[in-house]
Structure formats: structure tokens, C-alpha cells
Amino acid sequence: MADLHLDSSEEGSSALDSEDSSDTSRRRRGRDDRSDKRAFWAELPFLIIVALVLAMLLKTFVVQAFYIPSSSMEPTLMVQDRVLVTKLAYLYREPRRGEIVVFRDSPEETIGGTDEGGGVGDLLSSLASGLGFGAGNERDFIKRIIGLPGETIEMRGGVVFIDGEPIPEAATADGGYLSRPDLNDFGPVTIEEGHYFMMGDNRPNSSDSRFGLGQIPRDDILGRAFVTIWPLDQIGSLDIAEYDAVPADQ
């Protein structure tokens, strides 16, 4: 029986071809990897711009996070809390008594802040505040709606009266939302049509429609705060207070 022998030259040639093929494959993969990296870095500015535009559109038309800078809504909302505000709540209905809303003070009545400036820095600052990472615009306020258009509102002995009827408010110790009643009297004042009367839950320590802010036009209401998202141990919905004893709410 004849022995089979491999030609040494063919064997060497096959090994060299295999190595050449492997080197070629590695070089091709290397070029592909470098090409993919260049494509990623080339597309990155566009992706960032798209992300910023989507974030701004979301903030402007759908939902926005707000940072709580003061104690005027304690104990419902504490300083440095973050809340989400829906801007779709009032597309098909009017704001209701007891809802917590964010609104913008009219420029002529501004307590603080300015609209001056521009550029990338202001864009990033606006985006950061919209995500709840900054104090936001000093013209933005968060309060609870207490009086509705056309109503007459007054305070006597810590009790709010709407058209002569008392609102059933209470301190948190008694199952309500107030820090404590404000014993200073106010009014009576008739609320203009198309305007709302806002008060803070920290009634004795709130700059609201009684002092400084005045009545808030419907167009200045940005949206309804519906959930607390920070701190994590306080995540939860913000319930709407109900006032069954007030005729206008029945």
C-alpha cells in the first residue's frame, strides 16, 4: 500500500495563505472599527441637538419639573422638593379649586427675576430648570387655587369664606393641608372674570394673591402639579382638595 505524502512547498504555501487571510481580516475589522467610531463622533453633535430639541418640546408642551425654592407651600411641599407639572390638564377644562398649580407672574408685577440674556447658557439653564435641577425662573410660583372667577373671597379669624360660605380647611394635625391658619383678616374682594385667587398652604408665611401677587390671569397658569418626584422617600401624587360645602364646587 502506497504512503501518502504532502508536498512541503504546498504545505508552506497553505500556511502563508492562511496567515495572509487572517491579517487581511484583522486589518479590515480595524478599518471598520475606526470607521464606526468616526461615524459616531460625526453624528454626536446632531444627536445632542435632537435630544435638546425633544427635551425643550416636552418641557414646553407636555410636562415640566419644578424645584420648590421657598416654604410657602409647607407642609405639602418642602424646600428643595421637585414636582412634575402637566401642561395638558387645562386643555379641555378650567382650573378647579384645591388644585396646586404653577403660574407665571405678570412682568409688571414681578417680585424678582429678569428675561434679559440669551444664548447657549440660557438654553442650558432653561433646560436644567425644566428637568428640576435648578431654581428656575423667579417669575414662576406654585400655590393652591382657592378662589374662582367671579367669586367674592375674604378671611376672618383664620377661615376663608367664598361668597359668604366657609371653606372646610384644616391644619395637617386635623387631617387638612394647612401648616396652620392665618388669623389676619382679608377682604372681601371680588375676583375678576378670567382670574384666580391663589394661596400657599403655609398660610401665615406665603406671598400670594393676598399680598403682592394679586389675582392671577388664566393665561398665566402654566399647569397643574400632580406628583412629587424628589426626595425619593416622598414620591407620590398630589391630591386635589375637595370642598363639598362650597356651592360653586357642587
Describe the structure.
The chain contains two helices and twelve strands. It is α+β, with helices and mostly antiparallel strands. The strands form two sheets. Strands 1, 2, 3, 4, 9, 10, 11 and 12 form an eight-stranded antiparallel beta sheet that branches. A four-stranded antiparallel beta sheet has the order 7-6-5-8, with no helix packed on it. The longest helix is centred in the N-terminal third of the chain and has 54 residues. The radius of gyration is 31 Å and the shape is elongated. It starts with 7 loop residues before the first helix and ends in a 13-residue tail after the last strand.
Task: Provide key terms for this protein.
12 strands; 250 residues; alpha+beta; four-stranded antiparallel beta sheet
Order of helices and strands: HEEEHEEEEEEEEE
User: What shape does the CA trace take?
Assistant: elongated
| Content-based structural category | alpha+beta
Poorly predicted regions: 4-12, 108-127
Mean pLDDT figure: 77
Distance between the termini: 110 Å
Rg, nearest Å: 31 Å
